[in-house]
Amino acid sequence: MYLNDNLMTQVKTYNNLSSIWDKLKYCDDIVRYYETNLYDSLNKDICLIYWKEQRDKLNFIFYT
Question: Is the pTM of this model over 0.85?
Answer without folding.
Answer: no
